[in-house]
Amino acid sequence: MTTKKLVVFGLGNRGNIYATFAKMYPDKFSLTAIIENDEKHVEYANSNFSGVPVFRDYHDFLAAKIPADIVAIATQDEAHEEHAVAMMKAGYDLLLEKPIANTLKGCRAIYECGKKYNRKAVVCHVLRYTPFYSTIKKIITSGKLGEVITINASENVGYYHQAHSFVRGPWRNKEMSSPMILAKCCHDMDIYRYLMDEECKTVCSFGDLYYFNEKHAPEGATQYCSDCPNAKTCLYNAQRLYTTDDYLWTANYFSRGDNPKEQILKDLKHTQYDKCVFKNDNDVVDHQVVIMNFAKGKTACHTMTAFSQKIYRDIKIHGTKAELVGNMEDSFIEVRYFTGEVEKVEVTTSGVTVGAHMGGDFFMLNSLYKALNGETVEGITYLDVSIESHLMSFAAEESRLNGGKPVEITKD
Ligand SMILES: NC(=O)c1ccc[n+]([C@@H]2O[C@H](COP(=O)([O-])OP(=O)(O)OC[C@H]3O[C@@H](n4cnc5c(N)ncnc54)[C@H](O)[C@@H]3O)[C@@H](O)[C@H]2O)c1
């Protein structure tokens, strides 16, 4: 296998994972350019990836005609259409961050562009590559469950993650980014489609923004947490959340690097991330359910909720011979055979050195490397399949906005 040339477009949180992977595994990827227009991130690029050319404007990158096997598009959702189309037109294949685009029109435009210019795009549906879901897929393929009939699963967003990303952060407002069922759950839609191995035909959905609004503000709450008399008692106090050890990654959005907590607090004051979660301009939901009907009449039900202590997913799969029960936090998956036996199948993330998503990022990049070298790799799909998860998400949003009305999914 040969080393593949990688360009990172957008050296933010996600792009940094791809660039770091290349730095750690130079036999797999060589980082040939970075496109980044934020001065702080350019500085970070120059000190951490020295020798790699950094372009502030992607047009300059295109003019430089730098060869690459893959361009990782890791800019924000609303820019994907412009950036993906420009790169594919110029002849590059893509590792494209999800969502493909933040509008249905944008998703279709990228899909059509890929067909027109014969370009490939691997969408970062990282869950497929996690040991958790790839073990589940193997169990299904082995036939142990019989035929899969129903899937019931939850995406537990985590109370602090909801507050950070979907109340204060870039995905808080659907006009500015996208509906939450797309931003957060296109991964899950992709997983249902992958595990069912069938196209989803119809969805119904209900959901709302119930809690993170003015109605639930504690008495005397101020616009910024740093001025608020409820700072000590409020669960969502920004100063506490952004300096809690387990949540420090969220501070990267305004205080780059391994900053001490005093610096984080300074950088936080009176920014968007210091705003009260009950007095923001967020309009995305904090809970939503989606009911799916697949091509042969099989069904799945997805619950997305902000209200969990941790970030995790759980799943129950009902087959004709056994049921499977899994929680991403555990190191095993249980197969409960109808004959009475219970099998515990081990799940391990050992060997993962970089990235997040319970090994998803790490194994996705390893799979991508193999696929670029012409190997057949389980889980890798291209836009023709990846777009289905987005069609399911947009249909779910349409249904939710229409009181749960069934919405049919049409690919073309
Ligand atoms: N696959 C996943 O599981 C997953 C998880 C989180 C986020 N995402 C997606 O990844 C993407 C990036 O998210 P993030 O959290 O890394 O965001 P981020 O804001 O940290 O990073 C985006 C980067 O792109 C740069 N940028 C924006 N416009 C640019 C331009 N025109 N030219 C050059 N640089 C530009 C920004 O300066 C920033 O450094 C988003 O689409 C997000 O939804 C995917």
List the helices and strands and how they pair.
Elements: E1 4-9, H1 13-24, E2 29-35, H2 39-48, E3 54-55, H3 58-64, E4 70-73, H4 80-89, E5 94-96, H5 104-116, E6 121-123, H6 131-142, E7 148-156, H7 159-168, H8 180-183, H9 186-196, E8 200-208, H10 238-241, H11 261-268, E9 287-294, E10 299-305, E11 312-319, E12 322-327, E13 332-337, E14 342-346, H12 360-372, H13 383-401, E15 407-408
Parallel strand pairs: 1-2, 1-4, 2-3, 4-5, 5-6, 7-10
Antiparallel strand pairs: 7-11, 8-9, 8-15, 9-10, 11-12, 12-13, 13-14
Helix pairs in contact: 4-5, 5-13, 9-13
The structure holds nicotinamide-adenine-dinucleotide (NAD).
Strand content: 15-25%
The CATH architecture of the largest domain can be given as 2-Layer Sandwich
Bound molecules: nicotinamide-adenine-dinucleotide
Strands, count: 15
Mean pLDDT: 96
Structural class: alpha/beta
Integer tally of domains: 3
Written overview of the protein:
- The chain is an alpha/beta fold.
- The protein folds into 3 domains: 4-123, NAD(P)-binding Rossmann-like Domain (Rossmann fold, 3-Layer(aba) Sandwich), CATH 3.40.50; 127-212 and 282-354 and 382-408, Dihydrodipicolinate Reductase, domain 2 (2-Layer Sandwich), CATH 3.30.360; 214-274, no CATH class.
- Helices cover 32% and strands 21% of the residues.
- It contains 13 helices and 15 strands.
- The protein has helices spanning 13-24, 39-48, 58-64, 80-89, 104-116, 131-142, 159-168, 180-183, 186-196, 238-241, 261-268, 360-372, 383-401; strands spanning 4-9, 29-35, 54-55, 70-73, 94-96, 121-123, 148-156, 200-208, 287-294, 299-305, 312-319, 322-327, 332-337, 342-346, 407-408.
- The protein starts with a strand and ends with a strand.
- The mean pLDDT is 96.
- Nicotinamide-adenine-dinucleotide (NAD) binds at residues 10-15, 35-38, 41, 58, 74-77, 79, 97-98, 124, 126, 357.
